[in-house]
């Protein structure tokens, strides 16, 4: 019993498991039906697709024509109708099974959607599950049989095609073998023909090649010979061309070098010692002086007309004249752009501007621009600043050149106290010719070509005055430029039979004969000059430089730092300007005298008395200044006279080209003014020189004492070259290199050398015995 109970329990458990499995399967089926609406979602579509394929197969096989029997039928061909028939049967069976499966699926599908339809259809599906699986199996079996039949039919078709192709290949091989046999038979004949023709061709080619080779060699040899000759000719020609070109370049370079050397030699032959010395000695002007020379619309007011006692040059349309910078010059003060004729000469036209008040001088501007007269005269008393004005015009040439670049300015400063060349017409011609040629090398070459003998000239002594004049006139008349010639100091020309004022005026007339030259001259109003020059446009320095003198005086007095109020110093300045009467050198001498008085601690009353007592005449002024030295000892005055004689001696030796240099000048000045050194030097007959350091100390002290010793008649000159000595410090001697002494002005030379008072001064002193032979 116990065993049966166990079996019953196991059976019960199995039933429970089967029930659970069935329930699980039912639930899964319900879920599948609920989700897809069909118990087998893909089965219906599979059956439908298979049915459509079978229907198409039936139609395809039903439309095929009955195959025609061949003359040699094969087994494959015999089986073809049987296979097609069987394939049709399988397709019909497959269609039937698919239709049955579709009907079963339609029966099992829920009649209504949703969960209720799924619950109703699930038991039905589970109940007819075996039938559904059987129908599905039948459909699968029919499909596999149909697939196998299709493959069998395809194999049969392929075998039939293979057999047909094999038979065609067999027939083709026989024809090909026959062709190959025939070709082999004819190949022997063809080989024989080819070999025969090859031999003939080889022989022909060999013969033709040999012939061609010979012809090519002959042609190439001929061409090579021809080209070799051509190349040799070309190389020879090219080498000759290169050689000719090189020779031409070397010749051109040598010609250029020769021309440059000739040009430099020409300039060197025209340059003489001290040619620019006088120009360089003229001190620069005060920044505000001489502006009036380049103006033609200015009014002049007397010094006493202003409320502050000052006089000014007032411009109607420009108030910048009183600034510290140089005044800008209006474009009307120079040659206008159309003021030069087609020939390049100066021409006349009416002035474009008129002064608001009659000017006390002929306008320098209008003369430059419009006046047909070719000479302008700057007249003035001795020491009135004529040379300074001429240098101002020369150094401010930009006012003229800015509108007419073709203008060139030439200048020369005659100097009676200088060497013969510095005061002679020959020196003037050398200077002008040197200036014009140094700026125009082309014209210089034309001169050398026209006058080749000039190449033999090495110095100014190789020229004659006539040769210089002819050359200068030729250059000025044929130059591409206009020229303004500035000649200063006509009254200082050398007074010799071949020189003199008349000869100089004749030269000036020759210069202005050309329409391309104008000449501005300056001189004292000496009768011989006044008679000829006063008919030309002119100005008088003493009438125009009052303002310039006032500026200089005020500046110098302010620099002296007087212990007085502005009114007193202004009154003293006005007093000096009033007594100067336009003479600059008089003002300079008076200011120097005031400086010496101030150094001697003179009070203001004494300084006033000193100015009021000084004569207006320069000769009397020099005499008055010398007489003030009577208070000094005879030894002090004797040394001063020695310096006068040395200055005269220096001038005399310079004219003889025996120019003193460096330490010779220094030795002479230092030794001559020291009795002890002079006695030692003379005792040794000039072989024993003083110590260099002691010499420098003596000279330095002399330089500081000179203004007081010579009453303002002598001054120190300092050229650029430095004095050097191996025995002392070069830097200490450098400021005194080639230092000498000279007269402060030509009026000082005239006073010492020509006036009765000056001759008395020299002859009255015991020191004159040393230099009496040098007195001119």
Automatic annotation (TrEMBL):
<feature type="region of interest" description="Disordered">
    <location>
        <begin position="307"/>
        <end position="333"/>
    </location>
</feature>
<dbReference type="InterPro" id="IPR027417">
    <property type="entry name" value="P-loop_NTPase"/>
</dbReference>
<dbReference type="InterPro" id="IPR056884">
    <property type="entry name" value="NPHP3-like_N"/>
</dbReference>
<protein>
    <submittedName>
        <fullName>NACHT domain-containing protein</fullName>
    </submittedName>
</protein>
<feature type="domain" description="Nephrocystin 3-like N-terminal">
    <location>
        <begin position="363"/>
        <end position="524"/>
    </location>
</feature>
<feature type="compositionally biased region" description="Acidic residues">
    <location>
        <begin position="307"/>
        <end position="318"/>
    </location>
</feature>
<keyword id="KW-0677">Repeat</keyword>
<dbReference type="Pfam" id="PF24883">
    <property type="entry name" value="NPHP3_N"/>
</dbReference>
